[in-house]
Amino acid sequence: MKKYFSILIILCTVGIHAQELLPYPLDTINGEEFYRYEIERSIGLYRISVNFGVPQSEIIRYNPQIQEYGIRYGETLSIPTKRPVVRQTEAVVVSTTVTETVVPTEVTVSDERLEVNNEETEVVELAMMLPLESKQTKRSANADRMMEFYQGALLALQELQNDSTLYRLRVYDTERSERRVNALCESTELDSTQGIIGLAYPIQIERMAQWCDLHQVPLLLPFSDDIDLAAHPQVLQFNSADAQEADSLCQWFKSQDSIHCVMIEVKETDIVGSVRTLRKHIKTNGIAYTGMALRDVLNDSAAYALDKEKENIIILHSDRYQHVRILMPHLLKLQQAGYSIRIVSHYAWIQEEIGLPQVYTSVFTENTALEAYDTNRNLYFANTHVGDTPRYDLLGHDLMKALVEWLKGKKETEGLQSLIRWQQKENGGYQNANVKVCTKD
Questions:
Q1: For residue 90, how many other CB atoms are within 10 A of its CB?
Q2: The whole model's pTM is what?
Q3: Are the C-beta atoms of residues 174 and 180 closer than 8 Å to each other?
Q4: 85-122 pLDDT tens trace
Q5: Domains of the chain
Q6: Could you tell me which of 114, 119, 120, 167 has the fewest CB atoms within 10 Å of its CB?
Q7: 412-424: pLDDT as tens digits
Q8: What's the CA gap between 108 and 94, in Å, rounded?
């Protein structure tokens, strides 16, 4: 008999509960009772399924227009009242001070259920640890990005489904708490876990990395590069380290025929670490450069350090835009005076109206094969992404796919937003070797 696939998601600390009595009008159709529900803003099929305790496949069955048009604000749906899928099961105490509420939820891909105990079925146990801030009364923009990351990861699991694999995903709201992570590592909660994605804050990462090294479980870090990979062989670091970015830029400098590197110099204690690393690599690679004092830029007397016959690559003293934006008008004056200027910028700046050409490093590619993904995302979640770059939903999709493929032995993954190549660092953990240099005019 053909088997069907479902993704089992266990949400921990995210406080989702099925409601027994819901404040919606009731209709009776062919002897069956339905809620009459008008779709609210920024809500998708997944959230409706959770709120009503009804499988998504059942909602679609009674509202077939969803398959063609998706979830649309203001439209009325008929939701069956007696088809519970979400149920509170137990409170698992992972320490004397932290209680995690465990709620199983199903994202059903077929009307039939896959038997987990079938001997032909492979079960993959995964965990995700994000600061979803579910217990906060005022959610931050960061929490919205984390929810997008989570949504993209779910769609990746749907894409990776096959007839003989069941993915179990536990999602933990770690907030900004080192205590939560410590308690989790000291419990038996993760004993069956085969791979972990997450942890956003450096104060949480070291303890989880130690646990993963001890249990030989890969830990894929989506955001931070603040960890000693040589000491943690189970860590997969997606973001490029300062040294990787510096090496990439140095190779680009060497490949250009007519450039002149200029460094804006300040006290060593005032230079951020990434810029200090870049300066060190420029010197190591024998790339000629001229120093430009910060005061000379601010008093518009910096032309002496520039070369009118070449493109001047300006290396600022910080990679934080708010720290250097005061310099931009002065650099623009130099450009207007006839000097060719390009600044070494940061990926996050590409949304800013700077007015100067830029060169920067990025771990992201431009992949436009998003139509099927966006269709599914609109069908299941319906809310639009927050507009930052990178798209956090695509990041969640790509890294979930990368983790599953890593477990299958693959060290390279092509995602919707990223091409990831894992490269071992000093016999320790792995870093994403796909760092490229981009330019913006």
A1: 10
A2: 0.76
A3: yes
A4: 333 222 233 333 333 333 333 333 333 333 444 456 78
A5: 1-17+88-240+365-435 (3.40.50.2300), 18-80 (3.10.350.10), 243-362 (3.40.50)
A6: 119
A7: 999 999 999 999 9
A8: 29
